[in-house]
Design a protein that fits this description.
The chain is of the alpha+beta class and 230 residues long. It has one domain. Strands 1-2-3-4 form a four-stranded mixed β-sheet, with helices on both faces. A hairpin with a 4-residue loop joins strand 1 and strand 2. The longest helix is centred in the N-terminal third of the chain and has 38 residues. About 10% of the residues have low confidence.
Amino acid sequence: MFSGSNSGKRKKALSRVDGVLSRVVHNLGLEKRLKEKTLMDLWPTIAGGVLGERSRGLFIDYQGTLVVSVRDAATGHELSLLKPQLFKKMKAAARGLSVELTGLRFDLKHFHKNEVDHTNVGSVPPLPEPTAEDLANIVLSESELAELQQAVAEFEHAHTQAITDLPRRLAALFERQLRLKQWRKKHGYPVCSQCHDITGQIHGSAALCSSCYFNSQIRIVQNPGEQNFS
C-alpha cells in the first residue's frame, strides 16, 4: 500500500509526463501543418504556366485530399484532364514531406475571394504579409535549422524523377515557411484555436485558420450545388 506522500509524487510524475506528451503532440501537429503549406506552395510549379496562375492549393482535407481552387470552369476542366499526372507529382512531393496525400480535387469555390467569404473575428481585415527582404532578414533558430536539415534529408531520401530538382524546391519552400512562421510570431499574428498555427487571418467565432475552417465546413455539410471537377 502506498503512502500519501508517495501517491502525491506519482501524481506529479504522471502530470509531468502528460505535459511532455501534450507538447510533443502539439509540435507534431504544427510540423504537419507547416509541411502541408509547403506542399501547397509547390502547386503553381506542378500545374505550370497559365494553369498554375489560374489555380491555387486551398487546403488538405481531413481525408488527405488536396483541394485546389480554380478560377473558372475551363481551367477546372483542363486540370481534370491532367489529374493523373498532376496527382502523381504531388504525391511524390508529399512523400518527401512525410504527408499522406490520398487524392486531388478541383473546385470553383473561393478563388476570387481573399481566403473565404465570411466575416473574420471582429471584422479585422487580413494582416499584411512580409516582403522577400523581411523574410531574408529572419535568422532561424538552432532548432529550426535542425528541423530544416532533417527535412532536406527526408527530401533527398524520397527523391523522384516525377519532379525536376524536387529536394531543392521543397527545401526552399519549407525554409520560407519556417521564416514566415517566425516573422508572423514576432509581429503578433493570431493563433488558430484548433491547430495552434500562427496565421495571417482567422475566421468565424471559433477563431480558426483557413485550413481548419474549410475542414470544419466539409465535415458539417457538402453543398450539392457546388461545381466540382473530380
